[in-house]
Protein 1
Amino acid sequence: MAFWDGLWPGRNAQFDAGTSATSAITLSKRHATVSLDKQGAVSGNLRVNLSWRMRTSDIEGRSRQGGRLLRPLQLFKPDVVQAHTQGMVNVDLDLGCMYELADGTKGVVQPLGNLIGDLNTPPYIRLSGDDRFGAPSGETLYVNLDHRESFKRLLFFVYIYDQTPAFDRTHAKVTLYPGNGPRIEIELDERAPQARSCAVFTVDNVKGELIVRREVKFVYGFQSELDRLFGFGMQWGRGYKTRA
């Protein structure tokens, strides 16, 4: 192999089918579904993680353009920092899950109302914590796939608890980590400046097979509007979170 062969990414990609090619599956509009069963995720805990970072360009403007003159391509690339950086818009993204079990039971697991769920008893879904600052660890929900037969359908969603709607300023991503098989990534990459909630993905039990479907549908209301959109038919009231 010539020396320069190694300088061209992708030139020999057809021979590189190792772990890097299978470590992640990205769901998009074109490729919106994946079977957990076909990926080998048939037991153990499914970890669903929400993480986000924020753009600063809409707050700082172009105050740092002068230093970019030596790198002109950077003029059109917004700065990205962790969401808790001082001077940033305060955005509290929360991760939740509406569920319908095989026996008809319906409910929600979310930070509001301290509805953290349970892994070993119904609904077999549990929230690990409430991250209010966009820390790298984000927020995580766990789903006990050892009770997969108990699930009829699940809807995972993200909402802004309070403050100014700012989905258009965030780089939010939801990642699924099955106990076996590659991780599954879903970017909330569609701009919806005034939206307060987003239905990210669903999991449906189709004849015993769990199918993940990317949704990424933004709405301007909260959980009740997501409920109407997906037809869960639950009753909703005003919810609050305790302040740390």
Protein 2
Amino acid sequence: MEELRIFLKQLLFFSEFIAAVVAILKFRKFRDSYWKWFSYYLVFIFLAEAVSKFILCYFTDYRSYFYDFIVIPVEFIFLYWLYSYKSLDNKKLFWICCIIYILSLLPYFVFGGSSVVNQFNYVIGTFLLSIMVILEFNKQIKTDDILRFRENMMFYINTGVCLFYVGTLPLFAFNSLLWKDQVIFYNYFTLFLIAGILMYLIFSIALLWGKPNT
């Protein structure tokens, strides 16, 4: 099983690379719409993972700071912007979620960078994102967007985010409990890696099939 997880980690990195390459190749298609920022986002994610994999491997003490204060906040805040600010057209929701998420970082400075604190921050971020996923699905069901799902960018984004962030939320929410049975924990972690791979492949499909005016 450990060999499988090592392979899946490499495959996850490769899927991020594929998404970044597709984002660059399809940039002209989206450059006149706000979806160009999604292309920038995918390139950022790949570069961040590359920095972690090839540079921060020599500075492991700084890797957690890199993710906790740069990579993960960028991921959540960008997705909040994409969902609430653009798709749902709810600027108030965007700012509320950003403030709550940023406040969830404060325990890090009070209690230090413990695993429990990091889990709390990630769980809060994912919980807020889950609310937006539900609102987005509700929006698509009530409009004709669901009928044009093949070209609907948010359909793909919502599916990928739901699969990865929402689907693997229990891994972080109940991390300490799951860790007591390492077989269950590592099986769930394997699903986490698979979900990540599928999410970035779905993002790539969104750029290939989706249309910028959706």
Protein 3
Amino acid sequence: MFSIVVPVYNEAEILRQNAVKLVDCAKKVGEPFEVLICSNGSTDATDDIGRRLESEYGGVIRFFSIPEKGVGHAFVKMVSEARYDKIISIDADLTTDMAFIDECTTLLDEYDMVIGSKRMGEQYRSIARIILSKGYYYLVKILFKMEYGDYSIGAKGYMKGMIEPYLGKIDYGSSYVIEVAYMIHQRGKIIEIPVFCSDTRRSKFNIFHEVAYRFNALISFWFRRGR
């Protein structure tokens, strides 16, 4: 049994087709599951589409909408609402190979976190994104002594019981992945596996703002960790 969590922000263009594809992929695992979708501050038709999906796929797709913009807020909401202990985080654009879902459900029988790593596998992304990611991971390694190579939102698995105590402490944005990984690294078991990623879609976020946010969030967490 597992819960797939999908944060969305202004994804009206792709939400329906990708939600249906995700449900079809999850069915192949052969276990009870649910797909939780949470819109965080969307201003397009995302919420309307999400509500219709929930109505059409009652019990399988559950849709939530929160006014606060920030993927960390969405993550906290979905984990809090999840019915099952195994939590699998997937990007709305489904850029990662969906085979990760099946493998992740098995690994969570033994581990507290599963990291799907683009660096260990294959990735088709812009050179700028790859270079910035490498610099970011190197900084994480220096500050937190963690060797993992991917701290993006998608292709991550968690045991709910391990992360619930920290939900009120994690960052509002994408930096929550670093924080959760650090907390589990201190007390639990993490495994990193290769994944295939093809991400050629133009980012909705200003890359300079994202770099500034991630650096500030990283330093902030470095000062307050363990408190």
